[in-house]
Amino acid sequence: MRTFLLIGLLGLAACATPLVQAPGQQKVTPSLSLGAGSDRGAVQVSDGATLPIRVWRPADDDGQPSAVIVGVHGFNDYLNTFQPAGSWWAAQGIITYAFDLRGFGAAPEPGIWPGQERLIEDLNNVVTVVHQRHPGVPLFLHGNSMGGAVVLLALLGQTPESSLALVRGASLTAPAVWGGAAMNPIYRLSLWLAAHTVPARRVTGRGLGILPSDNIEMLRALGRDPLIIKETRIDALYGLVRLMGAAQRSAEGVRGPLLVLYGAGDAIIPRRPTATFAAKLSAQTRFAVYPSGYHMLLRDLQAEVVWRDVAAWIDDFDAPLPSGAEVPRSNLFGDDPKS
Question: Are the CB atoms for 21 and 115 separated by under 8 Å?
């Protein structure tokens, strides 16, 4: 952030505008296409854009699934976030759909921020087409990191006419709620200056010494994956922080069953804004903190513990979580709410 501040101050004379993707020019009815016998396909959303989608089905694909999950991935990631979680849930009779958010993976204009409203509308469209494919099956959302922020804002804005009204509940792993008033004002100012002077400048996380997971083999594979964005435009980072701030402010208005899951070793989303966010959520929200968990809970070495908790909660909102990691909202981190 000190680097952003310096860049911003040096570039004040050349003020620029953060780049946001322009919406498509078509108006279409959202549709889902999957090849015969294939687990991969595409969703055409309401402005005509096409987003890659993948499905993990139970082996007995002719039977009625117990539930459907629509997965929403995190920043600079893509639908592969939900492998192998989707395979494990499929073995429990749950179908999982995950798609590349606009601006990420193989979706249009990777690396260019798509805008908060478009992210929410795309999720709404995906929920619509998945529900049409599985009418009568309980439908859930799972948001991971940035995807958690998108899910929260989508639920906040749902109306009786919206397809999001069909959602039975949502689980969130490491929800991205570190923005707005929850972020150090110097960080926010530094980022604003950089986004409005050198928005196309790219930055990386190299040298920060942050470990997002204890699954080192998985992290190395992500480093080789061409669909993972490794150099981030500053204006995309600015868009993310604004999204996180909106998600933090949304907490009091979000209703419906929620399961919020957090790793005690998370070095990406700090504890303090997570605790502040949690305290504002409705009484229908349950929380779990995993002592051995990191930010990438769905892909950590102990990831199956998290998958199991999500499946158990989907089956019964009130049953104890198998992990025993549930904690009260009033004391998420005991006496140590590290910032």
Answer: yes
- Torsion, Cα 298 300 305 307, to 10 degrees, reads 20
Q: Is residue 49 part of a domain?
A: yes
pLDDT digits (tens, 9 = 90+) for 261-313: 999 999 999 999 999 999 889 888 999 999 999 999 999 999 999 999 999 99
For 198-222, b where at least 16 C-beta lie within 10 A, e where not — what string? bbebeeeeeeeeeebbbbeebeeeb
Residues 328 and 338: beta-carbon distance below 8 Å = no
| Domain, as residue range, for 278 | 2-314
* 272 CB burial (10 A radius; 0-12, 13-18, 19+): middle
Taking the CA atoms of 218, 221, 227 and 229 in sequence, report the sign of the dihedral they define.
positive
Assessment of whether the complete model's pTM goes beyond 0.85:
yes
For tokens 């049409």, name the residue. 132
The reply to whether 327 falls in a domain is: no
